[in-house]
Amino acid sequence: MGIETSAGNIKREKGNSELAKNKNQVQDPSSNTRVNTSNRGKKTRRRLPKKGLVVSPVQTLYDTCKDVFTFGGIGVIPSPESIEKLRTVLDGIKAADFDVSPDMPFFRNSSTRRTQAIGYLHIYECDKFSIGIFCLPPSGVIPLHNHPGMTVFSKLLFGTMHIKSYDWVVEKPSDAVKHPEIQESEVQQPEVQELEVKQSEVEQSEPKKTKVQQPGVRLAKVKVDSDFTAPCNTSILYPADGGNMHCFTALTACAVLDVLGPPYNDSEGRHCTYYLDFPYANFSVDGLSVPVEERDSHAWLQEREKPEDLAFIGELYKGPKILE
Ligand SMILES: [Fe+2]
Questions:
Q1: How far is the CA of 197 from the centre of ligand 1 (A)?
Q2: Ligand 1 mean position to 248 CA, how many Å?
Q3: Cα-to-centroid distance, 259 and ligand 1 (Å)
Q4: Residue 261: beta bridge partners?
Q5: Which residues contact residue 219 at a Cβ distance below 8 angstroms, ignoring those fewer than 6 apart?
Q6: Does residue 300 contact residue 217 with C-beta atoms inside 8 Å?
């Protein structure tokens, strides 16, 4: 998942959640990753648990993230080995490891709010990665949003949730030239109401195609559109695939553990963008067409402001502490 804490008006606890900025990074042009010239020394200085002390799963998660995202940055995907390493840790982790359970108050519906507020347990954040848990009451929704340049690991800790996700269609489908179906009627910037009318037309008859030149509309392909019930596997999304834009709808109280690498950061251009999604039949864009049998798995995404009724509430994490 991965809503940036700033956009969600979530207060962060500073101090132990920030690592010192590394001033010794140089670019390795051959690998497109950063090489940390002082990292070796840093690694050996890491404090280790005392002999005989049991390491908590939360500590193991932190230690693994620290290794996996050592050379992280926007658009930098960890190696396949690193991804499997973190996936294995997440697959084995449980809600109880964080002292989180469905009977906590922030998993209950609010009788005073029209939409359900989403709780966020901030566990850790540095400039390389963040760890947190989204707490959704029944019918809570995290609207469609993106994760620019990030690799995101999500683990449903408990509950049942509907997930719909998309990736951008970067290249024009190969049959676009073979099946030119665009008519030449122009429309102005369409409003949502107009789109709904057009959709009813689509359901009754052959879609009435309109040529839309609208910068805010971009074609995306559905990656996931299913219900998930914990326990289930860790899901992973990448900068350009795996369902980088997603929407979560809680069917029951849900807890979702989110690991972002790197985290959202407005000052570095990684801000959270929200979208509306419209059926493929609602628009046509000149020169872009999708085969009939694939149209149900495509949609147009349009940027929107953060929904006014969307509220994230920072909750106090009381689980096992992380030793940095
Ligand atoms: Fe997300």
A1: 30
A2: 8
A3: 10
A4: 151
A5: 168, 169, 280, 285, 288, 290, 298, 299, 300, 301
A6: yes
Q: What percent of the chain has pLDDT over 90?
A: 60
Give distance in angstroms: CA of 146 to centre of ligand 1: 7
Pairing status of strand 217-229 against strand 160-168? antiparallel
CA gap 73, 125 in Å, rounded: 14
Closest alpha carbon to 222 in 274, 167, 148: 167
Q: Exposed, middle or buried by CB within 10 Å (0-12, 13-18, 19+), for 102?
A: middle
Residue type, 268: E
Tell me how far the alpha carbon of residue 15 lies from the centroid of ligand 1, in angstroms: 25
Q: For residues 171 and 244, what is the distance between their CA atoms, to the nearest angstrom?
A: 16
- 3: CA distance to ligand 1 center in Å? 5
Q: Over the stretch 207-237, which tens digit does the pLDDT of each residue have?
A: 444 555 555 789 999 999 999 999 999 999 9
Distance 19 CA to ligand 1 centre (A): 23
Query: How far is ligand 1, taken at its centre, from the CA of residue 147, in Å?
Result: 7
- pTM of the full structure: 0.74
130-166 per-position pLDDT tens digit: 999 999 999 999 999 999 999 999 999 999 999 999 9
Beta bridge partners of 166: 222, 245
